[in-house]
Amino acid sequence: MTTEIEVDTREFMATAARFLATSKRDHLVVMREQAKGVIREAIALTPPGRPGMTKARSRGTGKVKADILKLVKGTSSEARVQRRDISAIHASRRRRGRVTRELNPRILVPMDALRSYIKERQARVGHLASGWNVAAAKLGYKPPAWVWRNEGPGAITIRVTDKDIRIRATNRVAFASEISMLNRRIQTALNIQRNKMERRLASYLKRAAARSGFK
């Protein structure tokens, strides 16, 4: 399953044009730098990213465990085991990547199998964000290790001219299209990077004004 996302780049490109006008560096280098910034922010905003990116992994692993325990309960008694297919139980109850409704009572499953399954699922935290790894590598950005170690499929094509830059980044992780508001997250990433350019522009203009004798 491939997720195609259309975002509004008009304001971003308008700011980029003004930004390029003040830069002495090669325009291709500048625009690739900005594209890298967009991908960096996209990764940071992809669940379980921000807020608090530094704690995102622990937050993600905690949510994985909590979701699974909404459905099943471990038991060490073979006689009490009701089902063993924990993966199937979990998959059947996930909606948009999360378990939103609890089972009451929980289904009793083997304790050892439950622990192993939770560990396995927690190891996949960052898999969705890793769908941007190919794009990040192409642009020279290495995501946090817990994202980078996953191998979510993705792709990127970049076409840069002296007038614009066209980037098509694709996240091919199977459930990417099921994540709510993914489109808005990518648009937010674009806007964050545009705001960074705006701040650098303001700083440049302030310094230029000072050099010219203006306050």
Verbal overview:
This protein is α+β, with helices and mostly antiparallel strands and 215 residues long. It has two domains: 121 residues, no CATH class; 66 residues, no CATH class. It is 49% helix and 12% strand. It is built from eight helices and six strands; from the N terminus they run H-H-H-E-H-E-E-E-H-H-H-E-E-H. The strands form three sheets. Strands 1-4 form a two-stranded parallel sheet. Strand 5 and strand 6 form a beta hairpin. Helix 2 crosses helix 8. It is elongated, with a radius of gyration of 22 Å. The termini are far apart. The mean pLDDT is 84.
Concise summary:
This protein is of the alpha+beta class.
Largest sheet properties? 2 strands, parallel
Q: How many runs of DSSP E, i.e. beta strands?
A: 6
Mean pLDDT: 84
Question: Alpha-carbon distance between the termini?
Answer: 55 Å
Strand order of the largest sheet: 1-4
Helical/strand content category: alpha+beta
The helicity comes to: 40-55%
